[in-house]
Amino acid sequence: MNSELASDPGESTVSVDLGDRSYPIHIATGATGRFAAAFARSLGDVSHVLLIYDAAVEPWAEALAAQIRVESTRVDAAAVPSGEPSKSIAQFGQLLDWMLDRGADRRSVVVAVGGGVIGDLAGFVAASFARGIRFVQVPTTLLAMVDSSVGGKTGINLSGAKNMVGAFWQPELVWIDTLAMKTLPDRSYLSGLAEVVKYGVIDDAVFFDYLESNAKALVERDPEVLRYAIRQSCLAKARVVGEDERETSGRRAILNYGHTFAHAIEATAGYGTLLHGEAVSIGMQMAASLAIRLGRCDAGVLERQTEVLQACRLPITFPEADVAAMLPVMMRDKKVAHGKLRFILPTKIGHVELVGDVDPAEVETAIRAHC
Amino acid sequence: MNSELASDPGESTVSVDLGDRSYPIHIATGATGRFAAAFARSLGDVSHVLLIYDAAVEPWAEALAAQIRVESTRVDAAAVPSGEPSKSIAQFGQLLDWMLDRGADRRSVVVAVGGGVIGDLAGFVAASFARGIRFVQVPTTLLAMVDSSVGGKTGINLSGAKNMVGAFWQPELVWIDTLAMKTLPDRSYLSGLAEVVKYGVIDDAVFFDYLESNAKALVERDPEVLRYAIRQSCLAKARVVGEDERETSGRRAILNYGHTFAHAIEATAGYGTLLHGEAVSIGMQMAASLAIRLGRCDAGVLERQTEVLQACRLPITFPEADVAAMLPVMMRDKKVAHGKLRFILPTKIGHVELVGDVDPAEVETAIRAHC
Ligand SMILES: NC(=O)c1ccc[n+]([C@@H]2O[C@H](COP(=O)([O-])OP(=O)(O)OC[C@H]3O[C@@H](n4cnc5c(N)ncnc54)[C@H](O)[C@@H]3O)[C@@H](O)[C@H]2O)c1
Ligand SMILES: NC(=O)c1ccc[n+]([C@@H]2O[C@H](COP(=O)([O-])OP(=O)(O)OC[C@H]3O[C@@H](n4cnc5c(N)ncnc54)[C@H](O)[C@@H]3O)[C@@H](O)[C@H]2O)c1
Ligand SMILES: [Zn+2]
Ligand SMILES: [Zn+2]
């Protein structure tokens, strides 16, 4: 057993260091009863909470609301329909109207309970109401636990453009309880594992070793292994975000490993055919192949990554890919500078670099290697 | 003639000092021809400008757009209907859709041309698009020149709540050309003067002296006097904002001198009966009376303030006031702490302080003194 795990009594805290915007990420299993205390520790006296939750996790939301009410704090709760379409200007406006109607003011606190959709939406609502009020993230999908709830990116979609509108707005507390995984469908859970593997490849070789040894337990949602995997993922994300909070230095771009390919797969396959993490899994395979072709790393990186992704039951090829359509999409991606393709590519397990001016023919070959 | 004026060749720059968010306010008369150069100085190479303007100032917007195009920058322009209802979620969403449609990206720059409505709306659009892109304020009302374009408060309204949604987002440049005053109706212009007088009372006794001597020329829109008054107003606002950018220390509250009364007047008279500056003028009179009653300043403060406001042709009483309705509105105002009324009150010309726990009976008497 990993030595850090042995010294971990089950609950732990990771801190995101951003000066006066720093906050803790609390990771535990079955800790709802301690939520109110952690909430009070991070936020002090709060008189009014606006709890915004995914309709699919109503029981969770109710349990948390009950906890907060124990401290005689007033709680108003609003259910948001599940799914990406809720990240809209219309839903944003509705929630703001609802908050005003509930008497929210600048001392009120928003609590977001749900996956990335709810976190992104409620976070942007909190960032904008009265020019910014405090908020807490309670992620209930694995993707939200290891990725979207940490780092302060909030936002909504415009028709045809994801995350086009939003704010950088950090939460005061991220509260992760792996019990929420009980109701999460397998495909969504496994999809979240792609981002977990990503952190190993881009930033933490020791963690990657751990994943190689513990993939089976992780897939089976063993609480201890799961907590450890979430913890290492949050540590990696917090490190990167701490170095580049607002995506200005370029450092934060390493989180996009595999994502330029993934976005092109998602866009050309029609959003919804693949889950995001599934596309990321295939995209990381393409990126590793590209790195090998460009002489940036040896074939062992792809081999080890392939084995871990397969052990996590993630897809590693996409036979239905429309390769001819993918390249133009990639040329429009944000990481294209002056018409040149740029990629985050591994040099070895645990380290990536930004590689510019990549020949489109090499990119196409890397794509075809996984179709 | 004032010595600082003598050394001012007509154009001048005030700087707002906010660390890496600092920016210049440029003040001139008939300087459109130099806009492109100032724009390039503040923003560097820009490939795409989104010019958002009040439909009432189309010729101004077109002249500026032509200037920017001289540098072969692509300019897309959108007219927004005049008036407060444009500060809505619907208009916000429409502008964002339009920007996406025009191919805006995170390097694009928003230029807001109009009064406070356009500046607040376009500023929030810039703050939110791609989680924040750069923007420039070109205020075309006096209120916008001396108040709303400086300080980074952006936002829109919810039905029944002004400025309830928004962001703190600083511009890269504020470009003030007093020629825009040519088309501004008298009532709007004079209304803006109330905020100018406010700066003298709260922060700058020498400037107040100047206003006493030059009120007539100011009312007649003498360009030199007008530029000087705008400059001193911007200096005062920049000083206060520099000390309390996000309204956290309480310092920024001094800008609300007269405003607790003014908001109550506006709310009970029905928004639109009085212009904002007219209500502020009456509100400052009530605040000065309250200060005298509480023994915070001598009667001379009110006398001098009355004379300057009258010389600026601003109302100093509001006989139609619904006094009984005003107090409850004031109790709901943001500056009420734990049910106690708090006011920004003068101690002498050029200095104000926050006074808490004020007896409502004294407030009512101060209101009645100006009805
Ligand atoms: N802000 C960021 O940094 C960031 C990073 C990555 C992704 N994102 C965003 O996150 C979103 C995707 O997040 P997601 O994958 O969590 O999607 P999601 O929020 O849509 O959740 C996926 C599905 O799971 C359901 N669900 C949530 N928790 C559940 C639970 N405990 N039990 C059963 N069902 C549950 C939801 O109702 C939904 O149908 C996207 O909008 C993406 O843009 C944001
Ligand atoms: N952000 C801040 O710090 C701040 C401060 C004070 C006020 N405000 C906001 O500012 C708004 C009020 O600003 P305003 O008084 O400029 O109102 P406004 O923008 O509505 O302009 C007033 C009127 O003048 C017209 N107009 C504008 N420029 C003109 C010109 N050069 N010639 C002829 N007509 C012209 C407009 O079409 C409008 O009808 C309010 O929404 C208020 O909340 C914001
Ligand atoms: Zn991802
Ligand atoms: Zn005002």
From TrEMBL, chains A, B:
Top-rank taxon, per record: Bacteria
Pathway linked to the protein: Metabolic intermediate biosynthesis; chorismate biosynthesis; chorismate from D-erythrose 4-phosphate and phosphoenolpyruvate: step 2/7
The 3-dehydroquinate synthase C-terminal domain, residue ranges: 192-336
CC cofactor: Co(2+); Zn(2+); NAD(+)
Subcellular location: Cytoplasm
An example Gene Ontology biological process: amino acid biosynthetic process
InterPro entries with a match to the protein in the record: Dehydroquinate_synthase, DHQ_synth_AroB, DHQ_synth_fam, DHQS/DOIS_N, DHQS_C
Catalytic activities: 7-phospho-2-dehydro-3-deoxy-D-arabino-heptonate = 3-dehydroquinate + phosphate
Name of the top EC class for this enzyme: lyase
Domain 3-dehydroquinate synthase N-terminal: 79-189
EC number: 4.2.3.4
Entry GO CC: cytoplasm
Function: Catalyzes the conversion of 3-deoxy-D-arabino-heptulosonate 7-phosphate (DAHP) to dehydroquinate (DHQ).
The family this protein is said to belong to: Belongs to the sugar phosphate cyclases superfamily. Dehydroquinate synthase family.
PANTHER family linked: 3-DEHYDROQUINATE SYNTHASE (PTHR43622), 3-DEHYDROQUINATE SYNTHASE, CHLOROPLASTIC (PTHR43622:SF7)
Protein name, entry field: 3-dehydroquinate synthase
